[in-house]
Amino acid sequence: MVNFNGAILETASNFLNENQRGLRFGDILFEELRVMNGNLVFWEEHYFRLMASMRILRMEIPTVFTMEYLESEILKTIEQNNVLNNSALITFAVFRNFSQSLLPKTNQVSWFISCQALTSSFYTIDEEPYEVELFKDFLVNQDMLTNLNTNNKTIAVTASIFAEENGYADSIVLNTSKHVVGTTQGAIFLAKDKVIKTPPLSSGVKNEVIRTKIIEIIERSEDITLIEEAISPFELQKADELFAVNIALGIVPISKYRKKTYQNEMGRKILAKLDAQARMTSLK
């Protein structure tokens, strides 16, 4: 079941068509969040990120878009999908209403909420080998639009296909300065000794809540130093650990890049703290 502007529809319903601006012009925003045992995880942070993204794209924010209203609509959606007491990945999409031209006749928006059940109520580490390679065909721009979660996924999709065709689990994407941005799964973190580096938002990284939460956990750790700065591909083989982050999986440990294999000690500790924090916020 999908929630379209507050109405619960069958997933196969044709509630969107070829005139939808998200399809025609990429004029759409997404916010993905996780539900644990029927409770929204880091909901306040997700809500304010969505509002900030809408303002950046000059979308009109409906007066009903309060934190309480959207939370109730998400909960209504997961209840209709029979995952109220389980875990799920929620996608909240918002887009400007129909216009045949690039210049919209209105800034008013429509929205929908979809729900995908997850197998685990907890953040867990996948122990399967996860080898990656650089994707060099296309480069990520370094601007504020790249920080937003829109439907412009061309580079990520192409990089994923490149990885599959060449026997890799994932690809590492680069920006126009030939610095590391992340994998197709999300932002990347590089650990060496007691220092963890991650690219700054100015590198073209998605400004996602899960990235912020991981950074907060690292900054609170007394024995780890966090550095946000550009990462050269040459640094990857010098690292002790590499991992990507996304809202569905938490931490995705990278096991191999070219001739270098990686540990997963820090990533495991950080994930345990993330899981504990997620459980606490979901109980509020």
Gist of the model:
It is built from 7 helices and 16 strands. The chain is α+β, with helices and mostly antiparallel strands and 284 residues long.
How are the secondary structure elements laid out?
Layout lengths: L1 E3 L2 E3 L11 H5 L2 E9 L2 E2 L2 H14 L10 H14 L7 E9 L12 E9 L13 E10 L3 H4 L6 H12 L4 E6 L4 E4 L2 E7 L2 E4 L10 H12 L4 E4 L12 E6 L3 E5 L1 E2 L2 E2 L3 H18 L2
Parallel strand pairs: 7-8, 7-15, 11-12
Antiparallel strand pairs: 1-2, 1-6, 3-4, 3-5, 5-6, 8-9, 9-10, 10-11, 10-13, 13-14, 15-16
Describe the model:
It contains seven helices and 16 strands. The relative contact order is 0.14. Helix 6 crosses helix 7 (265-282). It folds into two domains: 2-117, Aminotransferase class 4, branched-chain amino acid transferase, N-terminal domain (D-amino Acid Aminotransferase, Chain A, domain 1, 2-Layer Sandwich), CATH 3.30.470; 131-282, D-amino Acid Aminotransferase, Chain A, domain 2 (Alpha-Beta Barrel). The mean pLDDT is 92. The chain has helices at 21-25, 43-56, 67-80, 144-147, 154-165, 209-220, 265-282, and strands at 2-4, 7-9, 28-36, 39-40, 88-96, 109-117, 131-140, 170-175, 180-183, 186-192, 195-198, 225-228, 241-246, 250-254, 256-257, 260-261. The chain is globular and about 50 Å long. The protein is 28% helix and 30% strand. A hairpin with a 2-residue loop joins strand 3 and strand 4. By secondary structure, it is of the alpha+beta class.
